[in-house]
Amino acid sequence: MLKNLRVTTSKYIDKTSRVSFKFNGKAYFGYKGDTLASALLANDVHLVGRSFKYHRPRGIMTSGSEEPNAIVQVNNNTALTEPNVRATELEIYHGLEATSQNCWPSVNFDIGGINNFLSPLLPAGFYYKTFMWPANFWEKYEYVIRHSAGLGKSPTEPDPDIYDHKYIHCDVLVIGAGISGIMAAKTAAKNNLKTLLLDEKNEIGGSTIFQNSKHVKINDQNSSTWLENEIKELRNIENLEIKTRTSVAAYHGYNYLLARENLTDHLPKNEKNKKIRQRLLKIRAKKVIVATGSLERPLVFNNNDRPGIMLSSAVKKYADYYGVATGQKNIFFTNNDTAYESAISLNKKGIKVEAIIDIREQSNTAFTKEAEDLGIKVYRSYTVVNTEGYKKINKITIMELSSNGQSFANQEKIELDCDCLAITGGWTPAVHLFTQSGGKLKFREKDQVFIPDLYPSDQISIGSSNGDFELDDIIKNSTKSLKEFLNIKETEFDNLEINCPKDKEIRNIWLLPSDKVLGKTKPFVDYQNDATAKDIKLALREGFKSIEHVKRYTTTGMGTDQGKLGNMHALGIIADTAGIKVGELGTTTFRPPYTPLTFGTMVGRNVGEYFDAFRRTPMNDWHIENKAEFENVGQWKRAWYYPKKDETMHDAVQRESKAARYSAGILDASTLGKIDIQGTDSSEFLNRVYTNAWSKLAIGKCRYGLMLNEDGMVYDDGVTTRLDENHYIMTTTTGGAANVLSKLEDYLQTEWPELDVYLSSVTDHYATASVCGPNSKKILNKIIPDLDLSDESFPHMSFKNAKIDNIKCRVMRISFTGEHSYEINVQANFGKSIWEKCMDAGQEFKITPYGTETMHLLRAEKGFIIVGQDTDGTMTPIDLQMDWIVSKKKYDFIGKRSLYRSDTMKEDRKQLVGLITDNPSEVLEEGAQIVANTNATPVAMLGHVTSSYYSPNLNKSIALAVVRGGKNMMGQKLIIAMENKNINVTIVDPVFFDKENVRLNA
Amino acid sequence: MFLITCPFCGEREQSEFKAGGEAHIERPKQPTELSDDEWAEYLFMRKNIKGVQFERWNHAHGCRKWFNMIRDTSNDTIKAVYKMGEKPPVK
Ligand SMILES: [Zn+2]
């Protein structure tokens, strides 16, 4: 039978606008303005999920973002589904479908519930203890854990929604639009400061907006009426922007904050389309005012987690704001006055309040008196020792406390029937954002709260997030702080007349006593992660002392709610047990995000092809037209190989390699880094950055250079050409270009500012076509007939300026393949036409375009290294058997001294060698480990394969590898140990092909 | 995320900059004269202070200039920025 518990009207609920939705497959309706939680409660649905570990039935506890239990999966579409949504924040809309999380097969019957009866077997640290051994069982454990745990399901398809990022700069950012936030925003904006006011809820006004007590007045008006008028004025103030449904996720240093603005989640399904769903606001504020309010604390007692047990403030909000009765027989359980205020409000709406259980011995404020005048039964100095009711609470047992609050005055037990138990343990300032920003807290003994103490940036906390809980304190202290903070003389709130009950007392007992031993009770501290007071005490007994360790061991505060409700109780129980003060214990670190963020919000528009920038060469279109496959090299898209018809990669690479060696090949080398070096000290500069000598390089000549880090390890390599007396062009590896420039700039600016040298990156300014092979000279001759290509005039490692038609170009005769070859460099926008000219001219020689894979194969045949593939930042030139390039004569160059350190001079360092396989058709895997003896335990790892190919020109498998002491192991047999077999290899010289370099001059 | 005042460009977001480690470590003029220990001191040893630290920063996505910064690493306060070769303005 469906009950309707919508008992009163509310201006925030539009009863003319019915909204139908589904929860766990069942249809319900609510009204525009409802959250999923308020709509479910109006339909008398409390049970919304199961707890994480014991699978205990759990109900809605709160009315806000701190909700630990009512966590739902929204939408069952595989692309749009979203886990971990708090029903207390989710506004209902037409077509909403939500399901409980963490309960299979259904919320009313689930197999995991058996854990509740097995709970003695599931103590703190259970997962660590139980699933550790034996190690090879882990796969089985993992299956069980993953199946029964897991908070919700991830979408399995790309998210079709649109997300956005926006930068905002403001003078003053106010976080939280409760009464103090509204006062702050108004004051700032009226003082000509560009102000942004954010609130996570759909309406501003905080809890004051539904305050209705006759004891709480501002200027003789009901405080809610007063605030409504303030809000009306607020809407017309210039300089002020208000954003609702906007939750600040992170508060970083220098007043940089990230907030999530929710734009369409509350809209009916058919209105969501093509709109931006959520926007990440990147806010840089000159000043920040934190007015994030406070969170009500629960009480920790046996079985304090049943559906129907809710925070007192939530019960009040559901009644006053949503017009929903959370129960028909309500009992309040409290340690402070706010429960009385809530009980009075319910009573006046005709919602029955059976009793108030108060652990305090007395309280004589206007609230307590009014409650008693209304005839509400109050049990003073009593505590709840047990609750009953499986799917919803139906009974509580109370006992009278002794005066110290740790035991009982007598053994008498009173049972009371109820269908809702509203609990309150006082208030915790929401200091999460303050501490995220680096703020330091102090502990206030009086009411046991952590409040802001030292601010790390230009910010203040005001209102209850600063520990002011009473209306007069909030207004007076906020006004005073604002004047100092904004440096203004007066505000319009200076002379408000405020009435509110004072002298409220709070009695703090972190863990309420029970008639049973602790081991037989379930006093939950962290509802979402099922951590009880018992778990915390066990952790302490097992020797955990640091709060951070206890947190991890018991998983307290590690759920998606970050333990917003129970963290203080965890601290309190640890402090009490260890016999220290909470203030001495300190608190755990609050980390962003305050509430979960979607990945969509984080990445914004940077999805698909916009995920990262990519770079294309001027010849890119030609490669696409000619069916090239591409590979990513850093951000570059490089032609990888050009398959013909049914060719595999292997086939294509074999064909391309042969063509390049026996007729002509052409490679797009535009991605190589190019740095233009000018200045009178350029030669000296190159002397200092490369290992070899540069002073005597003649104009028009090219030289290969190896660049080291100061630690002696190879950093980059490439050919540099002397274009003129004081002008060089350096090439770098494709991936290293930016870092090389940055490193060179560093030395120039910081170590050698006296050198007259200027560096410019010109990588994107030139396109480079590399034509190689025995017919390359003939092709060049066709396109540049007036260039003398004779060896005498244009030998290997030299350069000429030339013109192709009217296009100026630089031609270098250099080779990375071991073949006679030319690199033609032209202004980038002529790249494609020059490339096409080469293709036309080469047609009669069957010129073959080849990609990076063939380039790698050809250079491996020659034993040329690729920095970053055959080196990994631990290889010196000596390790690479490249001693020839290290000048002995130069007094200094970057990295020189390190080559003589005892460690870099060791004989048994890993050194570059060639490998050939016993079976010439067996191609090794790059990265495969090399060993000498597979019988030893442990097997000594001698090194690994760095490059490996099947060489079509040698008709056998070849590889480069780094092997410990490899230099002195020529001819030695080693083993490549693979998963299913051992491959026998022999160490050889890394130059496999044309050792005499006759082809370069052919 | 810091706001850093580049001595050449003015105030910019941290994302435009690259940190370059401890400042005022001069590359030895005559490395070959140094013992292994002395060279290792230059090459590897860094103070990594909790507190006021002198650092090198590069306006990598701006003017590309290197400069020095005095930063309190315990709270990320930037005390000063100054050009390469200049004396630190504060202690
Ligand atoms: Zn700059």
**Bound molecule types:** zinc ion
The CATH H-level homologous superfamily of chain B = Folate-binding superfamily
Strand proportion of chain A: 25-35%
CATH topology title of chain B: Folate-binding fold
**Number of H/I helices of chain B:** 1
CATH class descriptor name of the largest domain in chain A? Alpha Beta
Number of strands of chain A: 50
- Secondary-structure-based class of chain A equals alpha+beta
Distance between the termini of chain B: 24 Å
Number of domains of chain A: 5
Mean pLDDT over all positions of chain B:
94
Provide the β-strand percentage band of chain B: 35-45%
Output the number of helix runs of chain A: 24
**Which segments of chain B are poorly predicted (pLDDT under 50) over 5 or more consecutive residues?**
none
Shape of chain B: globular
CATH class of chain B: Alpha Beta
Provide structural commentary.
Chain A is α+β, with helices and mostly antiparallel strands. Chain A folds into five domains: 14-121, Ubiquitin-like (UB roll), CATH 3.10.20; 162-294 and 429-499, FAD/NAD(P)-binding domain (3-Layer(bba) Sandwich); 325-423, FAD/NAD(P)-binding domain; 668-858, Probable tRNA modification gtpase trme, domain 1 (Gyrase A, domain 2); 899-1002, Elongation Factor Tu (Ef-tu), domain 3, CATH 2.40.30. Chain A contains 24 helices and 50 strands. In chain A, the strands form 13 sheets. In chain A, strands 8, 9, 12, 13, 14, 15 and 28 form a seven-stranded mixed beta sheet that branches. In chain A, strands 41-42-43-40-34-44 form a six-stranded mixed beta sheet. In chain A, strands 45-48-47-46-49-50 form a six-stranded antiparallel beta barrel. In chain A, strand 26 and strand 27 (449-454) form a beta hairpin. In chain A, helix 5 (179-190) packs parallel to helix 12 (471-486), helix 8 (312-320) packs parallel to helix 9 and helix 9 runs parallel beside helix 10 (366-373). The radius of gyration of chain A is 37 Å and the shape is elongated. Chain B has a single domain (3-83), classed as 2-Layer Sandwich (Folate-binding fold). Chain B contains one helix and six strands, in the order E-E-E-H-E-E-E. Chain B has one helix at residues 36-44, and strands at residues 3-6, 10-13, 18-22, 52-58, 66-72, 77-83. In chain B, the strands form two sheets. Chain B has a four-stranded antiparallel beta sheet, with no helix packed on it. In chain B, strands 1-2 form a two-stranded antiparallel sheet. In chain B, a hairpin with a 4-residue loop joins strand 5 (66-72) and strand 6 (77-83). The longest helix of chain B has 9 residues, at 36-44. Chain B starts with a strand and ends in an 8-residue tail after the last strand. Classes of the chains: A alpha+beta (1002), B mainly beta (91). Chain A binds chain B through residues 252-254, 256, 284, 438, 456, 710-711, 742, 745-746, 749-751, 753, 891-892, 896-898, 900-902, and chain B through 1-3, 18, 20, 26-28, 30-32, 34, 36, 39-40, 43, 56, 58, 60, 64-66, 75-76, 84-85. Zinc ion (ZN) binds next to loops of chain B.
